[in-house]
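testing teh design pipeline on a random one, pls ignore if ur not involved
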């Protein structure tokens, strides 16, 4: 938020230097990111970083100093034609010491051209020869020095300035025409020099998103009195009673709605001092009526909206308008002030009349009833809205406004009537209209302003500082809390402009933050922890999860952490073809931050593939994993199930590039299987079965279902080509696995036996079996282990062969067998008996025959 210091000074006396003020505000939580000097001298050195509890970078300083003897207030006495150019004029001008003839092409002086001496001189900012200003014709802020030159035969050595040339704004459409009371010859820096504080308003201090809000903070920090603006207005018109009505259909969404009426306005530009303040605060002036609503919003923090009253009456067939607040009907439409036709959601609150929608409540008005050049009567709205609903609306409509910024963070209903009253008086002063007597005020749901009780011992325990009760009360009273003191007990009532103070323990925490901010974080002493450390308790599940992560990293994989929010269409890409996922199968967010983050994820693999999309072009090999929960709706329960999952994604070169340039192809299914098997071995999990199966996400024939104790542990395989094509990744095979980490953690044995290194040598031999082609190699290996008994310590498949001389429909599986005893060297006779037992068992189970070598 941009805060002109001249505006701030209307409500609070500033006793500090600007630089010290910025430092104090930053330490109190209102981070001043930039000081922009407009005409005034800038400090000689940069500001030091604030340090302390709110350590941050230096405050940026920028701006342009207006030399006091070079840039002054002048008066244009006459506007004359240029002898050699139609788009230029000559101005006879008095700068307070002498007259000059100044050349300019400002279009807003052309209406005065050639009419002779002006009855009312135009007050303008005048830059004399040698003045340093910004070049109005260059993009950005480019400094230039005024020098004598001939332009179309006329000597020019000075100029009348626009806002851009003086560094006020980027406006260069015309010169500045000051208000009539500008003192002739006064240095412009004395008349309108300013400093703008650019403050980052954090969500916990959104109440300060106004000039008055910042003034409250300054008053509290400096101990100076606050002078809020007057909310009285001169009402000389007829009473408003019976000329406008209000209907609120849902008080939870609209706790208060206030209307005021002003008649006989003349639409015109606002006084220049108003325009200048709005521009310095970052808003574009429009006209005196709209500017009044924006001015009050920036001033006191209450967004307002002005309707053309006659347009409302026309919509009501000449009857007094009835303003209705309600939620939108399905697919209802409204053309907003930005000239966009909005299709409205059924949760969006609208301001309507009997003929239909007028505006999106708290966000933006509609085009049909906006104030325009012919407006003569204005109905002014001030209201309070449910801030969560406003957030939903701006997210769904992908729109924002200064009003929505404030309403989405919470504006107290008490501010509605104050804002309307203040704005009606400014409209009266700037437009010449007559204000109707009274307001129409519907207030069905007044909030209760919390009362929080606490002791001085709580301050000592929470903040580590010793303050007397009267000192604590004085700090809170500076922030406009009403405080009662009974010994060491304090009872603080929240002021009616704040919605951020809770009740009970939460309210006490809120007040402790306020006390610490105003007392000064930097004044709170550093102390050693005086309490006992809590006992150390084992969190076995967490430790096992971390061990699992360590093992995967040791296996060469990199952990990623992805969003838990997604969209059904994102996860639908895991299925071949065009599949629409049913959102009912997901846990949906009531108020999503974005349309593509509206549900909770049901798997990890889609998110890993999105990571691969962003990294595959920069990496020659991908090896990623994630361990995290997925979210599954549970019928009959309010909360979803959150089972833990493990996902792995691999792809790219098997060997990373190195100086010899050797490559060994791309990673394939068996590289992934090797990682998975190595993980199980490290966890000492036995009995994992790999079953050939089909899954729509994976390539047919390159997919396996993992089982343990007949329970499904997960799936692994090569991604289906039509699935992989949905992601922008290279065309090398992508290998993926998604495992049930809940089951995986469950089957990890709590303890395992250590086997000593054998003292006796092993016996190794190869065994080749011919059997039906459809028999799984894993099932054969399992039978071989069973038949081999405890002396068979290793079974490894090393060859699969089909073709001549093996008959059609058969295949050869060759296994390397390792025999070993702990207490002796095995003899050939012992090995032969075991081998014979294996061959006989294979023949019984599979009809296998021994293949001659």
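output:
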């Amino acid at each position: 938020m941009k805060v002109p210091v001249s505006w701030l000074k209307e409500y609070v006396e500033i006793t500090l230097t600007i630089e010290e003020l910025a430092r104090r505000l930053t330490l109190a939580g209102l981070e001043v990111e930039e000081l922009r000097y407009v005409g005034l001298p800038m400090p000689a050195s940069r500001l030091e970083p604030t340090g302390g509890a709110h350590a941050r970078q230096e405050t940026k300083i920028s701006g342009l100093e207006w030399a006091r003897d070079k840039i002054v207030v002048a008066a244009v006495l006459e506007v004359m034609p240029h002898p050699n150019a139609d788009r230029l004029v000559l101005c006879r001008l008095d700068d307070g010491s002498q007259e000059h003839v100044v050349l300019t092409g400002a279009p807003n002086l052309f209406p005065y051209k050639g009419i002779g001496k002006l009855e009312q001189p135009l007050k303008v900012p005048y830059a004399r020869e040698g003045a340093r200003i910004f070049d109005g014709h260059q993009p950005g802020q480019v400094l230039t020095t005024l020098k004598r030159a001939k332009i179309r035969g006329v000597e020019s050595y000075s100029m009348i300035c626009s806002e851009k040339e003086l560094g006020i704004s980027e406006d260069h459409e015309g010169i500045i025409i000051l208000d009539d009371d500008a003192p002739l010859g006064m240095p412009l820096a004395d008349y309108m020099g300013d400093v703008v504080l650019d403050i980052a308003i954090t969500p916990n201090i959104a109440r300060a998103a106004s000039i008055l809000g910042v003034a409250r903070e300054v008053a509290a920090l400096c101990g100076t009195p606050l002078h809020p603006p007057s909310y009285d207005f001169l009402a000389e018109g007829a009473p408003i009673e019976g000329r406008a009505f209000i209907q609120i259909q849902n008080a939870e969404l609209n706790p208060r709605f206030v209307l005021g009426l002003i008649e006989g306005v003349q639409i015109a530009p606002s006084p220049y001092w108003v325009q200048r303040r709005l521009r310095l605060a970052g808003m574009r002036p429009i006209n005196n009526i709209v500017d009044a609503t924006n001015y009050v919003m920036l001033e006191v923090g209450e967004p307002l909206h002005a309707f053309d009253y006659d347009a409302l009456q026309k919509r009501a067939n000449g009857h007094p308008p009835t303003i209705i607040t309600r939620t939108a009907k399905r697919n209802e439409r409204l053309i907003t002030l930005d000239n966009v036709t909005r299709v409205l959601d059924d949760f969006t609150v609208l301001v309507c009349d009997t003929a239909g929608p007028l505006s999106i409540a708290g966000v933006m008005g509609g085009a049909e009833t906006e104030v325009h050049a012919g407006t003569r009567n204005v109905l002014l709205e001030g209201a309070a809205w449910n801030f969560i609903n406003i957030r939903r609306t701006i997210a769904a409509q992908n729109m924002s406004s200064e009003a929505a910024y404030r309403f989405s963070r919470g504006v107290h209903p008490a501010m509605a009537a104050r804002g309307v009253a203040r704005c009606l008086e400014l409209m009266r002063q700037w437009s010449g209209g007559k204000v109707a007597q009274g307001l129409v005020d519907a207030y069905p749901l007044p909030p209760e302003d919390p009362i929080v009780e606490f002791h001085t011992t709580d301050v000592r325990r929470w903040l580590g500082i010793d303050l007397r009760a009267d000192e604590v009360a004085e700090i809170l009273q500076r922030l406009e809390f009403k405080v009662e003191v009974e010994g060491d007990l304090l009872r603080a009532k929240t002021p009616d402009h704040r919605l951020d103070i809770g009740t009970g323990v939460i309210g006490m925490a809120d007040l402790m933050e306020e006390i610490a901010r105003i007392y000064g974080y930097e004044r709170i002493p550093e102390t050693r922890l005086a309490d006992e450390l809590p006992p150390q308790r084992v969190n076995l599940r967490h430790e096992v999860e971390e061990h699992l992560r360590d093992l995967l990293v040791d296996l060469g994989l990199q952990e990623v952490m992805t969003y838990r929010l997604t969209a059904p269409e994102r996860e639908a890409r895991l299925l071949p073809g065009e599949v629409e996922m049913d959102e009912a199968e997901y846990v949906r967010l009531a108020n999503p931050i974005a349309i593509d983050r509206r549900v909770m994820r049901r798997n990890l693999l889609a998110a890993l593939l999105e990571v691969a999309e962003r990294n595959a072009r920069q990496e020659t090999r991908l090896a990623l994993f994630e361990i995290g929960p997925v979210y599954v709706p549970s019928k009959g329960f309010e909360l979803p199930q959150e089972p833990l999952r493990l996902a792995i994604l691999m792809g790219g070169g098997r060997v990373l590039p190195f100086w010899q340039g050797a490559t060994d192809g791309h990673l394939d299914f068996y590289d992934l299987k090797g990682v998975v098997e190595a993980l199980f071995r490290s966890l000492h999990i036995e009995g994992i079965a790999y079953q050939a199966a089909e899954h729509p996400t994976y390539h047919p024939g390159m997919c396996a279902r993992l089982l343990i104790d007949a329970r499904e542990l997960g799936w692994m395989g090569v991604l289906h080509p039509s699935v992989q094509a949905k992601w922008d990744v290279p065309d090398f095979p992508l290998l993926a696995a998604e495992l049930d980490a809940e089951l995986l953690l469950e089957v990890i044995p709590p303890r395992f036996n250590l086997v000593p290194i054998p003292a006796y040598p092993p016996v190794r031999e190869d065994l080749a079996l011919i059997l039906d082609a459809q028999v799984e190699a894993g099932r054969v290996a399992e039978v071989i282990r069973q038949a081999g008994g405890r002396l068979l310590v290793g079974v490894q498949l090393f060859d699969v062969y089909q073709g001549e001389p093996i008959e059609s429909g058969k295949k050869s599986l060759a296994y390397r067998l390792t025999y070993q005893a702990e207490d002796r060297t095995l003899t050939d006779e012992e090995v032969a008996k075991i081998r014979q037992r294996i061959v006989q068992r294979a023949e019984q189970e599979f009809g296998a025959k021994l293949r001659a070598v």
